[in-house]
Amino acid sequence: ARLNRIHSIFGTVDGLSGRFVSVFNYFKSLFYSKFMKPLRNGNVIHDEPPRKRFQEDFESTPLYIAVVTYINYGIMIVFGFLRDFLRRHGFEKTHASTEANDMKDFVPLYASFESFYTRNIYNRIQDVFNRPICSVPGPVIDIVERQFSKSGWMFKYTGKVLKNVVNLGSYNYLGFAENDGPCAEASIESIEKYGVGVCSSRKEMGNLDIHVKLEQKMAEYLDVEACLTFGMGFATNSMNIPCLVSKGCLIISDGLNHASLVLGCRLSGAQIRVFKHNDMKDLESKLRDAVVYGQPRTHRPWKKILIIVEGVYSMEGSIVNLPGILELKKKYKAYVFLDEAHSIGALGSRGRGVTEYFGIHPREVDIMMGTFTKSFGAAGGYIAGSRALVEHLRYHSHSACYATSMSPPVCEQIITSLHIISSTDEGKRRIKQLADNCRMFRQGLKKLGNIVYGNDDSPVVPAMIYAPTKLGAFSREMLKRGFGVVVVGFPATPIAESRVRFCISAALTEQQLQDALDAISDISDLLQMKYSKKK
Amino acid sequence: MGFDFKLFGKKPTSVVGYIEWLYFIYCITTGIYMLDPWERTVFNTCLILLLSMSFYTAYAFLPQHIFAMLSHFGLMDT
Protein backbone atom coordinates (compact mmCIF):
# COMPACT_ATOMS: atom_id res chain seq x y z
CA ALA A 1 0.00 0.00 0.00
CA ARG A 2 2.88 2.33 0.83
CA LEU A 3 4.60 1.67 -2.48
CA ASN A 4 1.34 2.20 -4.37
CA ARG A 5 0.94 5.57 -2.76
CA ILE A 6 4.44 6.61 -3.79
CA HIS A 7 3.96 5.26 -7.32
CA SER A 8 0.70 7.18 -7.74
CA ILE A 9 2.43 10.46 -7.03
CA PHE A 10 5.69 10.04 -8.88
CA GLY A 11 5.32 7.10 -11.12
CA THR A 12 7.54 4.08 -10.77
CA VAL A 13 11.27 4.50 -10.74
CA ASP A 14 11.64 3.57 -14.39
CA GLY A 15 9.14 6.31 -15.27
CA LEU A 16 6.97 4.21 -17.51
CA SER A 17 3.57 4.21 -15.79
CA GLY A 18 1.22 7.19 -15.80
CA ARG A 19 2.31 10.35 -14.00
CA PHE A 20 0.48 13.45 -12.89
CA VAL A 21 1.95 16.63 -14.37
CA SER A 22 1.12 19.91 -12.80
CA VAL A 23 -0.75 22.04 -15.33
CA PHE A 24 -0.48 25.12 -13.15
CA ASN A 25 3.34 24.96 -13.04
CA TYR A 26 3.49 24.66 -16.81
CA PHE A 27 1.47 27.83 -17.38
CA LYS A 28 3.35 29.66 -14.64
CA SER A 29 6.70 28.98 -16.28
CA LEU A 30 5.40 30.15 -19.66
CA PHE A 31 4.07 33.38 -18.17
CA TYR A 32 7.11 34.29 -16.08
CA SER A 33 9.78 33.50 -18.65
CA LYS A 34 8.93 36.68 -20.57
CA PHE A 35 9.52 38.95 -17.58
CA MET A 36 12.39 37.41 -15.64
CA LYS A 37 15.75 37.51 -17.33
CA PRO A 38 18.57 36.16 -15.17
CA LEU A 39 21.66 38.34 -14.75
CA ARG A 40 24.66 37.10 -16.70
CA ASN A 41 28.31 37.72 -16.09
CA GLY A 42 30.27 37.25 -19.26
CA ASN A 43 29.29 35.51 -22.45
CA VAL A 44 30.60 32.04 -21.92
CA ILE A 45 29.27 29.41 -24.26
CA HIS A 46 28.85 25.90 -22.94
CA ASP A 47 29.13 23.79 -26.01
CA GLU A 48 30.77 20.70 -24.64
CA PRO A 49 28.42 17.77 -25.18
CA PRO A 50 27.21 16.02 -22.02
CA ARG A 51 29.34 12.99 -21.28
CA LYS A 52 28.14 9.46 -21.30
CA ARG A 53 27.70 7.75 -17.99
CA PHE A 54 31.13 7.13 -16.55
CA GLN A 55 32.58 4.01 -15.02
CA GLU A 56 34.32 4.13 -11.68
CA ASP A 57 36.62 1.56 -10.26
CA PHE A 58 36.35 0.20 -6.76
CA GLU A 59 37.94 -3.21 -6.89
CA SER A 60 37.02 -5.28 -3.87
CA THR A 61 39.56 -6.32 -1.26
CA PRO A 62 41.29 -9.67 -1.89
CA LEU A 63 40.53 -12.13 0.92
CA TYR A 64 44.07 -12.92 2.01
CA ILE A 65 45.05 -9.29 2.49
CA ALA A 66 41.91 -8.68 4.55
CA VAL A 67 42.95 -11.61 6.76
CA VAL A 68 46.50 -10.21 7.03
CA THR A 69 45.12 -6.78 7.98
CA TYR A 70 42.95 -8.23 10.71
CA ILE A 71 45.85 -10.32 12.01
CA ASN A 72 47.94 -7.15 12.14
CA TYR A 73 45.30 -5.29 14.09
CA GLY A 74 44.77 -8.29 16.36
CA ILE A 75 48.44 -8.57 17.33
CA MET A 76 48.69 -4.80 17.76
CA ILE A 77 45.66 -4.78 20.04
CA VAL A 78 47.05 -7.66 22.14
CA PHE A 79 50.35 -5.87 22.56
CA GLY A 80 48.48 -2.62 23.14
CA PHE A 81 46.70 -4.18 26.10
CA LEU A 82 50.05 -5.48 27.38
CA ARG A 83 51.64 -2.04 27.16
CA ASP A 84 48.63 -0.36 28.75
CA PHE A 85 48.84 -2.86 31.60
CA LEU A 86 52.55 -2.13 32.09
CA ARG A 87 51.91 1.59 31.98
CA ARG A 88 49.02 1.48 34.42
CA HIS A 89 50.90 -0.54 37.03
CA GLY A 90 54.02 1.53 36.84
CA PHE A 91 56.43 -0.83 35.12
CA GLU A 92 56.78 1.61 32.30
CA LYS A 93 56.72 5.37 32.20
CA THR A 94 53.57 6.83 30.66
CA HIS A 95 54.07 9.44 27.97
CA ALA A 96 50.45 9.67 26.84
CA SER A 97 47.86 11.94 28.41
CA THR A 98 46.14 10.44 31.41
CA GLU A 99 43.66 11.74 33.89
CA ALA A 100 44.90 13.67 36.89
CA ASN A 101 45.47 11.64 40.07
CA ASP A 102 42.39 12.85 41.89
CA MET A 103 40.18 12.23 38.86
CA LYS A 104 41.03 8.57 38.44
CA ASP A 105 37.75 7.43 39.99
CA PHE A 106 35.65 9.48 37.61
CA VAL A 107 34.35 8.29 34.22
CA PRO A 108 37.45 7.49 32.18
CA LEU A 109 38.46 9.94 29.48
CA TYR A 110 41.00 7.89 27.59
CA ALA A 111 39.40 4.48 27.41
CA SER A 112 37.66 4.78 24.05
CA PHE A 113 38.89 2.89 21.02
CA GLU A 114 40.13 6.07 19.35
CA SER A 115 42.31 6.82 22.33
CA PHE A 116 43.61 3.24 22.53
CA TYR A 117 44.31 3.26 18.80
CA THR A 118 46.20 6.55 18.98
CA ARG A 119 48.32 5.42 21.93
CA ASN A 120 49.21 1.97 20.68
CA ILE A 121 48.95 1.81 16.91
CA TYR A 122 49.15 5.33 15.48
CA ASN A 123 52.06 6.35 17.70
CA ARG A 124 54.28 3.54 16.52
CA ILE A 125 54.37 4.77 12.93
CA GLN A 126 54.21 8.42 13.84
CA ASP A 127 57.29 9.29 11.85
CA VAL A 128 55.33 8.96 8.61
CA PHE A 129 52.69 11.53 9.59
CA ASN A 130 53.00 15.28 10.16
CA ARG A 131 56.42 15.61 8.59
CA PRO A 132 57.59 19.22 8.87
CA ILE A 133 58.64 20.85 5.61
CA CYS A 134 60.72 23.98 5.29
CA SER A 135 60.23 25.11 1.73
CA VAL A 136 57.41 26.16 -0.59
CA PRO A 137 55.14 23.12 -1.25
CA GLY A 138 55.94 23.00 -4.95
CA PRO A 139 56.99 19.99 -7.01
CA VAL A 140 60.03 19.41 -4.76
CA ILE A 141 60.19 20.09 -1.05
CA ASP A 142 62.71 20.06 1.79
CA ILE A 143 61.76 17.90 4.76
CA VAL A 144 63.20 18.46 8.23
CA GLU A 145 64.60 15.17 9.46
CA ARG A 146 63.43 13.79 12.80
CA GLN A 147 64.81 10.97 14.93
CA PHE A 148 62.21 8.92 16.80
CA SER A 149 62.87 6.89 19.92
CA LYS A 150 60.88 4.97 22.53
CA SER A 151 58.56 3.45 19.93
CA GLY A 152 57.33 6.79 18.67
CA TRP A 153 56.79 8.73 21.88
CA MET A 154 59.80 10.98 21.62
CA PHE A 155 61.57 12.58 18.76
CA LYS A 156 64.22 15.18 18.23
CA TYR A 157 65.37 17.11 15.21
CA THR A 158 68.71 15.87 13.96
CA GLY A 159 69.48 19.21 12.35
CA LYS A 160 69.62 17.76 8.85
CA VAL A 161 67.22 18.72 6.08
CA LEU A 162 66.34 16.23 3.33
CA LYS A 163 66.50 18.29 0.20
CA ASN A 164 64.60 17.98 -3.08
CA VAL A 165 62.12 15.33 -2.11
CA VAL A 166 59.58 14.97 -4.91
CA ASN A 167 56.24 16.11 -3.59
CA LEU A 168 53.42 13.71 -4.36
CA GLY A 169 51.19 14.77 -1.49
CA SER A 170 50.40 18.50 -1.70
CA TYR A 171 47.16 19.76 -3.20
CA ASN A 172 49.08 21.69 -5.78
CA TYR A 173 46.99 20.69 -8.79
CA LEU A 174 47.85 23.52 -11.15
CA GLY A 175 51.25 24.25 -9.71
CA PHE A 176 50.50 27.71 -8.30
CA ALA A 177 52.34 27.08 -5.04
CA GLU A 178 55.45 28.98 -6.03
CA ASN A 179 57.54 31.70 -4.46
CA ASP A 180 58.42 33.54 -7.67
CA GLY A 181 56.53 34.38 -10.79
CA PRO A 182 53.65 36.75 -11.54
CA CYS A 183 51.43 35.60 -8.67
CA ALA A 184 54.09 36.13 -6.03
CA GLU A 185 55.06 39.52 -7.43
CA ALA A 186 51.46 40.71 -7.49
CA SER A 187 51.04 39.53 -3.88
CA ILE A 188 54.15 41.47 -2.83
CA GLU A 189 52.77 44.63 -4.47
CA SER A 190 49.48 44.19 -2.68
CA ILE A 191 51.30 43.85 0.65
CA GLU A 192 53.00 47.16 -0.11
CA LYS A 193 49.61 48.71 -0.71
CA TYR A 194 47.33 47.08 1.90
CA GLY A 195 49.64 45.45 4.43
CA VAL A 196 48.99 41.90 5.55
CA GLY A 197 46.31 42.09 8.24
CA VAL A 198 42.77 43.29 7.65
CA CYS A 199 41.95 43.75 11.34
CA SER A 200 38.23 43.56 10.93
CA SER A 201 35.39 41.34 9.81
CA ARG A 202 33.63 41.68 6.49
CA LYS A 203 30.61 43.46 7.87
CA GLU A 204 32.55 46.09 9.78
CA MET A 205 35.66 47.63 8.27
CA GLY A 206 37.09 44.58 6.51
CA ASN A 207 35.35 44.88 3.15
CA LEU A 208 38.22 45.98 0.90
CA ASP A 209 37.94 46.78 -2.80
CA ILE A 210 40.20 43.83 -3.49
CA HIS A 211 37.55 41.52 -2.01
CA VAL A 212 34.87 43.00 -4.27
CA LYS A 213 37.18 42.60 -7.28
CA LEU A 214 37.94 39.01 -6.34
CA GLU A 215 34.25 38.17 -6.02
CA GLN A 216 33.45 39.70 -9.40
CA LYS A 217 36.28 37.83 -11.07
CA MET A 218 35.27 34.56 -9.41
CA ALA A 219 31.64 34.99 -10.50
CA GLU A 220 32.82 35.60 -14.08
CA TYR A 221 35.11 32.57 -13.95
CA LEU A 222 32.33 30.27 -12.72
CA ASP A 223 29.66 31.86 -14.95
CA VAL A 224 27.21 32.49 -12.11
CA GLU A 225 25.46 35.60 -10.94
CA ALA A 226 27.46 36.35 -7.81
CA CYS A 227 30.00 34.96 -5.43
CA LEU A 228 31.01 35.49 -1.79
CA THR A 229 34.44 34.67 -0.43
CA PHE A 230 35.58 33.67 3.06
CA GLY A 231 38.93 33.48 4.76
CA MET A 232 38.90 29.75 5.53
CA GLY A 233 37.65 26.81 3.46
CA PHE A 234 36.55 24.64 6.39
CA ALA A 235 34.68 27.59 7.91
CA THR A 236 32.93 28.26 4.59
CA ASN A 237 31.14 24.93 4.83
CA SER A 238 30.61 24.68 8.54
CA MET A 239 29.45 28.25 9.05
CA ASN A 240 27.26 28.66 5.98
CA ILE A 241 25.19 25.49 5.89
CA PRO A 242 23.46 26.61 9.12
CA CYS A 243 22.43 29.81 7.30
CA LEU A 244 20.86 27.90 4.44
CA VAL A 245 18.94 25.19 6.28
CA SER A 246 17.41 25.10 9.71
CA LYS A 247 15.24 22.91 11.90
CA GLY A 248 12.39 21.83 9.62
CA CYS A 249 14.56 21.03 6.63
CA LEU A 250 16.09 17.81 5.37
CA ILE A 251 19.71 17.31 4.33
CA ILE A 252 20.53 14.25 2.21
CA SER A 253 24.28 13.97 2.09
CA ASP A 254 26.66 11.53 0.50
CA GLY A 255 28.16 8.95 2.84
CA LEU A 256 31.73 10.01 2.19
CA ASN A 257 31.38 13.75 2.66
CA HIS A 258 34.14 15.77 4.23
CA ALA A 259 34.19 16.63 7.95
CA SER A 260 33.45 20.32 7.25
CA LEU A 261 30.18 19.40 5.53
CA VAL A 262 29.23 16.98 8.30
CA LEU A 263 29.94 19.61 10.94
CA GLY A 264 27.92 22.23 9.07
CA CYS A 265 24.99 19.83 8.72
CA ARG A 266 25.05 18.99 12.41
CA LEU A 267 25.29 22.64 13.45
CA SER A 268 22.31 23.58 11.34
CA GLY A 269 19.84 21.47 13.32
CA ALA A 270 18.23 20.01 10.21
CA GLN A 271 17.42 16.32 9.89
CA ILE A 272 20.25 14.48 8.15
CA ARG A 273 19.94 11.36 6.01
CA VAL A 274 22.85 9.69 4.29
CA PHE A 275 22.82 7.96 0.93
CA LYS A 276 25.40 5.48 -0.30
CA HIS A 277 28.34 7.00 -2.10
CA ASN A 278 27.38 8.00 -5.68
CA ASP A 279 24.42 5.63 -5.66
CA MET A 280 21.53 7.24 -7.57
CA LYS A 281 19.00 4.52 -6.73
CA ASP A 282 19.58 4.96 -3.01
CA LEU A 283 19.30 8.73 -3.35
CA GLU A 284 16.09 8.41 -5.31
CA SER A 285 14.48 6.12 -2.78
CA LYS A 286 15.42 8.48 0.05
CA LEU A 287 14.04 11.47 -1.86
CA ARG A 288 10.79 9.67 -2.55
CA ASP A 289 10.38 8.73 1.09
CA ALA A 290 11.13 12.29 2.14
CA VAL A 291 8.64 13.89 -0.22
CA VAL A 292 5.84 11.46 0.49
CA TYR A 293 6.24 11.00 4.23
CA GLY A 294 7.48 14.41 5.28
CA GLN A 295 8.85 15.13 8.74
CA PRO A 296 9.20 12.20 11.17
CA ARG A 297 6.32 12.51 13.63
CA THR A 298 4.00 15.15 12.29
CA HIS A 299 4.26 14.18 8.59
CA ARG A 300 4.28 17.83 7.63
CA PRO A 301 6.13 18.51 4.37
CA TRP A 302 9.79 19.42 4.68
CA LYS A 303 10.57 23.12 4.34
CA LYS A 304 13.53 22.40 2.07
CA ILE A 305 15.40 19.36 0.88
CA LEU A 306 19.09 19.93 0.30
CA ILE A 307 21.32 17.35 -1.39
CA ILE A 308 24.98 17.82 -0.43
CA VAL A 309 27.66 16.26 -2.62
CA GLU A 310 31.29 16.91 -3.43
CA GLY A 311 32.82 17.31 -6.88
CA VAL A 312 35.84 15.09 -6.31
CA TYR A 313 36.06 13.00 -3.16
CA SER A 314 39.56 13.28 -1.83
CA MET A 315 39.85 9.88 -0.16
CA GLU A 316 38.37 7.86 -3.01
CA GLY A 317 39.34 9.86 -6.06
CA SER A 318 35.83 9.50 -7.44
CA ILE A 319 33.82 12.12 -9.28
CA VAL A 320 30.17 12.78 -8.42
CA ASN A 321 27.52 11.62 -10.87
CA LEU A 322 26.29 15.15 -11.49
CA PRO A 323 23.90 14.50 -14.40
CA GLY A 324 22.12 11.85 -12.35
CA ILE A 325 21.82 14.13 -9.36
CA LEU A 326 20.48 17.03 -11.40
CA GLU A 327 17.90 14.78 -13.00
CA LEU A 328 16.70 13.69 -9.55
CA LYS A 329 16.78 17.25 -8.28
CA LYS A 330 14.48 18.44 -11.04
CA LYS A 331 12.13 15.54 -10.59
CA TYR A 332 11.75 15.86 -6.82
CA LYS A 333 12.32 19.63 -6.52
CA ALA A 334 15.28 19.55 -4.16
CA TYR A 335 18.27 21.90 -3.92
CA VAL A 336 21.84 20.85 -4.66
CA PHE A 337 24.93 22.00 -2.76
CA LEU A 338 28.08 21.10 -4.66
CA ASP A 339 31.40 21.27 -2.83
CA GLU A 340 34.05 21.68 -5.51
CA ALA A 341 37.02 21.85 -3.17
CA HIS A 342 39.17 19.45 -5.17
CA SER A 343 37.59 19.81 -8.59
CA ILE A 344 37.67 23.58 -9.28
CA GLY A 345 40.61 24.31 -11.54
CA ALA A 346 41.46 20.64 -11.87
CA LEU A 347 38.61 19.24 -13.98
CA GLY A 348 37.16 20.40 -17.26
CA SER A 349 38.93 21.54 -20.38
CA ARG A 350 39.12 25.16 -19.21
CA GLY A 351 39.48 24.37 -15.52
CA ARG A 352 35.94 25.43 -14.57
CA GLY A 353 35.30 22.38 -12.45
CA VAL A 354 32.97 19.42 -12.47
CA THR A 355 30.10 21.26 -14.21
CA GLU A 356 32.28 21.89 -17.23
CA TYR A 357 33.58 18.32 -17.11
CA PHE A 358 29.99 17.09 -17.58
CA GLY A 359 28.93 19.84 -19.98
CA ILE A 360 26.31 21.18 -17.57
CA HIS A 361 25.52 24.87 -17.22
CA PRO A 362 26.52 26.09 -13.72
CA ARG A 363 23.15 27.82 -13.39
CA GLU A 364 21.58 24.39 -12.79
CA VAL A 365 23.41 23.83 -9.52
CA ASP A 366 21.85 25.95 -6.80
CA ILE A 367 24.81 26.43 -4.49
CA MET A 368 28.37 25.99 -5.68
CA MET A 369 31.03 26.04 -3.03
CA GLY A 370 34.76 25.69 -3.44
CA THR A 371 38.10 26.44 -1.89
CA PHE A 372 41.09 28.40 -3.07
CA THR A 373 43.51 26.13 -1.24
CA LYS A 374 43.91 23.45 -3.85
CA SER A 375 44.20 24.73 -7.39
CA PHE A 376 44.85 28.42 -6.80
CA GLY A 377 47.67 28.11 -4.29
CA ALA A 378 46.05 30.40 -1.73
CA ALA A 379 43.69 29.92 1.22
CA GLY A 380 40.01 30.48 1.72
CA GLY A 381 36.70 29.44 0.27
CA TYR A 382 33.81 30.80 -1.74
CA ILE A 383 30.12 30.21 -2.23
CA ALA A 384 28.59 31.10 -5.59
CA GLY A 385 25.12 31.00 -7.01
CA SER A 386 22.25 33.32 -7.67
CA ARG A 387 22.40 36.90 -6.51
CA ALA A 388 19.58 36.34 -4.01
CA LEU A 389 21.52 33.53 -2.36
CA VAL A 390 24.73 35.52 -2.12
CA GLU A 391 23.01 38.60 -0.72
CA HIS A 392 21.30 36.44 1.90
CA LEU A 393 24.64 34.93 2.93
CA ARG A 394 26.36 38.29 2.98
CA TYR A 395 24.04 39.46 5.72
CA HIS A 396 23.35 36.23 7.59
CA SER A 397 26.56 34.21 7.46
CA HIS A 398 28.43 33.74 10.73
CA SER A 399 31.68 33.80 8.83
CA ALA A 400 30.96 37.18 7.26
CA CYS A 401 29.87 38.63 10.54
CA TYR A 402 32.50 37.37 12.96
CA ALA A 403 35.50 36.06 11.07
CA THR A 404 38.27 38.26 9.78
CA SER A 405 38.13 38.69 6.03
CA MET A 406 40.71 37.34 3.64
CA SER A 407 44.17 38.79 3.73
CA PRO A 408 45.01 41.06 0.72
CA PRO A 409 48.11 39.17 -0.57
CA VAL A 410 46.04 35.97 -0.60
CA CYS A 411 43.29 37.73 -2.59
CA GLU A 412 45.86 39.05 -5.03
CA GLN A 413 47.34 35.57 -5.48
CA ILE A 414 43.88 34.25 -6.37
CA ILE A 415 43.13 37.11 -8.76
CA THR A 416 46.41 36.64 -10.58
CA SER A 417 46.06 32.88 -10.79
CA LEU A 418 42.47 33.27 -12.07
CA HIS A 419 43.75 35.58 -14.77
CA ILE A 420 46.48 33.10 -15.70
CA ILE A 421 44.10 30.13 -15.82
CA SER A 422 41.36 31.80 -17.82
CA SER A 423 43.15 34.07 -20.25
CA THR A 424 46.72 33.05 -20.91
CA ASP A 425 48.47 30.22 -22.72
CA GLU A 426 50.33 29.37 -19.54
CA GLY A 427 47.01 28.51 -17.91
CA LYS A 428 45.96 26.29 -20.80
CA ARG A 429 49.34 24.57 -20.68
CA ARG A 430 48.97 23.88 -16.97
CA ILE A 431 45.47 22.45 -17.32
CA LYS A 432 46.58 20.20 -20.15
CA GLN A 433 49.70 19.17 -18.24
CA LEU A 434 47.58 18.22 -15.22
CA ALA A 435 45.22 16.12 -17.34
CA ASP A 436 48.15 14.38 -19.06
CA ASN A 437 49.95 13.76 -15.79
CA CYS A 438 46.81 12.31 -14.17
CA ARG A 439 46.14 9.97 -17.02
CA MET A 440 49.74 8.82 -17.32
CA PHE A 441 50.24 8.27 -13.61
CA ARG A 442 46.98 6.48 -13.05
CA GLN A 443 47.39 4.16 -16.04
CA GLY A 444 50.98 3.50 -15.01
CA LEU A 445 49.94 2.63 -11.48
CA LYS A 446 47.17 0.32 -12.69
CA LYS A 447 49.57 -1.45 -15.05
CA LEU A 448 51.94 -2.12 -12.16
CA GLY A 449 49.19 -4.11 -10.51
CA ASN A 450 48.22 -1.91 -7.58
CA ILE A 451 44.57 -1.48 -6.73
CA VAL A 452 43.65 2.12 -7.54
CA TYR A 453 40.28 3.53 -6.54
CA GLY A 454 38.20 6.13 -8.30
CA ASN A 455 37.56 7.73 -11.62
CA ASP A 456 40.14 7.85 -14.38
CA ASP A 457 40.03 11.63 -14.73
CA SER A 458 40.33 12.75 -11.14
CA PRO A 459 43.60 14.34 -9.97
CA VAL A 460 43.57 12.39 -6.72
CA VAL A 461 44.98 8.86 -7.09
CA PRO A 462 44.50 6.60 -4.04
CA ALA A 463 46.35 3.27 -4.15
CA MET A 464 45.33 0.69 -1.59
CA ILE A 465 47.69 -0.66 1.06
CA TYR A 466 45.26 -2.18 3.61
CA ALA A 467 47.70 -3.34 6.30
CA PRO A 468 49.00 -0.82 8.88
CA THR A 469 52.53 -2.26 8.87
CA LYS A 470 52.79 -1.80 5.13
CA LEU A 471 51.53 1.77 5.59
CA GLY A 472 54.54 2.67 7.70
CA ALA A 473 56.99 0.66 5.62
CA PHE A 474 55.78 2.15 2.32
CA SER A 475 56.12 5.74 3.44
CA ARG A 476 59.58 5.21 4.93
CA GLU A 477 60.86 3.41 1.85
CA MET A 478 59.50 6.11 -0.45
CA LEU A 479 61.19 8.79 1.62
CA LYS A 480 64.48 6.93 1.37
CA ARG A 481 64.07 6.87 -2.43
CA GLY A 482 63.38 10.62 -2.39
CA PHE A 483 59.58 10.81 -2.73
CA GLY A 484 57.26 12.34 -0.17
CA VAL A 485 53.86 10.66 -0.08
CA VAL A 486 50.84 10.94 2.16
CA VAL A 487 49.58 7.70 3.69
CA VAL A 488 46.18 7.67 5.35
CA GLY A 489 44.74 5.19 7.78
CA PHE A 490 42.01 5.10 10.39
CA PRO A 491 40.09 7.35 11.23
CA ALA A 492 40.19 9.15 7.90
CA THR A 493 39.42 5.88 6.09
CA PRO A 494 37.62 2.70 7.20
CA ILE A 495 39.84 0.71 9.51
CA ALA A 496 40.70 -2.09 7.11
CA GLU A 497 41.24 0.12 4.07
CA SER A 498 44.31 2.26 4.53
CA ARG A 499 45.70 3.80 1.42
CA VAL A 500 48.35 6.04 -0.01
CA ARG A 501 46.93 9.10 -1.68
CA PHE A 502 48.92 10.67 -4.51
CA CYS A 503 47.92 14.19 -5.56
CA ILE A 504 49.06 14.92 -9.09
CA SER A 505 50.39 18.36 -9.86
CA ALA A 506 50.83 20.22 -13.14
CA ALA A 507 54.25 21.29 -11.88
CA LEU A 508 55.58 17.72 -11.85
CA THR A 509 57.42 16.76 -15.01
CA GLU A 510 56.87 13.49 -16.78
CA GLN A 511 60.36 12.36 -15.81
CA GLN A 512 59.61 12.84 -12.12
CA LEU A 513 56.36 10.89 -12.43
CA GLN A 514 58.13 8.10 -14.28
CA ASP A 515 60.79 7.93 -11.55
CA ALA A 516 58.01 7.84 -8.99
CA LEU A 517 56.34 4.96 -10.81
CA ASP A 518 59.65 3.05 -10.88
CA ALA A 519 60.12 3.58 -7.15
CA ILE A 520 56.53 2.52 -6.46
CA SER A 521 57.05 -0.58 -8.56
CA ASP A 522 60.17 -1.58 -6.63
CA ILE A 523 58.59 -0.92 -3.26
CA SER A 524 55.36 -2.70 -4.20
CA ASP A 525 57.45 -5.74 -5.10
CA LEU A 526 59.29 -5.46 -1.82
CA LEU A 527 56.11 -5.19 0.23
CA GLN A 528 53.96 -7.50 -1.90
CA MET A 529 51.45 -4.74 -2.59
CA LYS A 530 50.41 -5.69 -6.11
CA TYR A 531 46.99 -7.07 -5.28
CA SER A 532 45.07 -6.32 -8.43
CA LYS A 533 43.61 -9.26 -10.31
CA LYS A 534 43.08 -7.35 -13.56
CA LYS A 535 46.29 -6.81 -15.43
CA MET B 1 65.46 7.06 11.91
CA GLY B 2 64.55 5.64 15.25
CA PHE B 3 63.26 2.23 14.26
CA ASP B 4 65.47 -0.74 13.88
CA PHE B 5 64.56 -2.32 10.57
CA LYS B 6 66.88 -1.39 7.78
CA LEU B 7 65.33 0.19 4.73
CA PHE B 8 65.65 -2.10 1.77
CA GLY B 9 64.87 0.23 -1.14
CA LYS B 10 64.02 -2.65 -3.44
CA LYS B 11 63.62 -6.39 -3.26
CA PRO B 12 67.06 -7.93 -2.67
CA THR B 13 68.44 -10.50 -5.06
CA SER B 14 71.38 -11.98 -3.12
CA VAL B 15 70.83 -15.08 -0.94
CA VAL B 16 71.48 -13.37 2.40
CA GLY B 17 69.33 -10.46 1.29
CA TYR B 18 66.56 -12.85 0.32
CA ILE B 19 66.51 -14.45 3.77
CA GLU B 20 66.44 -11.01 5.40
CA TRP B 21 63.58 -10.10 3.06
CA LEU B 22 61.66 -13.25 4.11
CA TYR B 23 61.97 -12.27 7.76
CA PHE B 24 60.85 -8.74 6.84
CA ILE B 25 57.73 -10.07 5.10
CA TYR B 26 57.02 -12.34 8.09
CA CYS B 27 57.21 -9.30 10.38
CA ILE B 28 54.98 -7.25 8.08
CA THR B 29 52.37 -9.99 7.75
CA THR B 30 52.07 -10.75 11.44
CA GLY B 31 52.22 -7.08 12.42
CA ILE B 32 55.29 -7.28 14.65
CA TYR B 33 57.12 -4.86 12.34
CA MET B 34 55.49 -2.03 14.25
CA LEU B 35 56.47 -3.30 17.71
CA ASP B 36 59.50 -2.59 19.83
CA PRO B 37 62.46 -5.02 19.62
CA TRP B 38 61.73 -6.51 23.03
CA GLU B 39 58.08 -7.07 22.08
CA ARG B 40 59.25 -8.79 18.92
CA THR B 41 61.44 -11.09 20.99
CA VAL B 42 58.52 -11.92 23.27
CA PHE B 43 56.26 -12.72 20.31
CA ASN B 44 58.90 -14.81 18.52
CA THR B 45 59.70 -16.72 21.71
CA CYS B 46 56.03 -17.50 22.32
CA LEU B 47 55.55 -18.56 18.71
CA ILE B 48 58.62 -20.80 18.70
CA LEU B 49 57.58 -22.36 21.99
CA LEU B 50 54.08 -23.03 20.67
CA LEU B 51 55.33 -24.51 17.42
CA SER B 52 57.99 -26.65 19.05
CA MET B 53 55.51 -28.02 21.58
CA SER B 54 53.08 -28.85 18.77
CA PHE B 55 55.77 -30.61 16.77
CA TYR B 56 56.93 -32.59 19.78
CA THR B 57 53.37 -33.65 20.55
CA ALA B 58 52.86 -34.68 16.97
CA TYR B 59 56.09 -36.62 16.94
CA ALA B 60 55.33 -38.40 20.22
CA PHE B 61 51.61 -39.10 19.87
CA LEU B 62 50.62 -39.01 16.24
CA PRO B 63 51.43 -42.66 15.37
CA GLN B 64 49.26 -43.85 18.28
CA HIS B 65 46.40 -41.59 17.19
CA ILE B 66 46.56 -42.72 13.59
CA PHE B 67 46.65 -46.39 14.65
CA ALA B 68 43.64 -45.91 16.91
CA MET B 69 41.67 -44.08 14.23
CA LEU B 70 42.33 -46.67 11.55
CA SER B 71 41.39 -49.58 13.79
CA HIS B 72 38.19 -47.76 14.82
CA PHE B 73 37.16 -47.39 11.24
CA GLY B 74 37.97 -51.02 10.57
CA LEU B 75 40.73 -50.40 8.06
CA MET B 76 43.36 -52.25 10.03
CA ASP B 77 43.39 -55.21 12.35
CA THR B 78 43.62 -54.21 16.01
From TrEMBL, chain A:
Keywords: Acyltransferase, Endoplasmic reticulum, Lipid metabolism, Membrane, Pyridoxal phosphate, Sphingolipid metabolism, Transferase, Transmembrane, Transmembrane helix. Its cofactor is pyridoxal 5'-phosphate. It is an enzyme of class 2 (transferase). Its EC number is 2.3.1.50. Pfam families: Aminotran_1_2 (PF00155). One of its GO terms (biological process) is sphingosine biosynthetic process. Its main location: endoplasmic reticulum. One of its GO terms (molecular function) is serine C-palmitoyltransferase activity. CDD domains: KBL_like. The chain crosses the membrane at residues 63-82. It comes from the Eukaryota. One of its GO terms (cellular component) is endoplasmic reticulum. Residues 164-520 form the Aminotransferase class I/classII large domain. Belongs to the class-II pyridoxal-phosphate-dependent aminotransferase family. This is serine C-palmitoyltransferase. It comes from Ciona intestinalis. The lineage of its organism: Eukaryota, Metazoa, Chordata, Tunicata, Ascidiacea.
Automatic annotation (TrEMBL), chain B:
One of its GO terms (biological process) is ceramide biosynthetic process. The keyword Lipid metabolism applies. InterPro entries: Ser_palmitoyltrfase_ssu-like (IPR024512), SPT_small_subunit (IPR051900). It holds the Pfam family SPT_ssu-like. GO terms for cellular component: endoplasmic reticulum membrane; serine palmitoyltransferase complex. Pathway: Lipid metabolism; sphingolipid metabolism; Sphingolipid metabolism. The chain crosses the membrane at residues 15-35, 41-62. It is found in: Endoplasmic reticulum membrane. Coiled coil: none annotated. Belongs to the SPTSS family. SPTSSA subfamily. This is Serine palmitoyltransferase small subunit B. It comes from Ciona intestinalis (Transparent sea squirt).
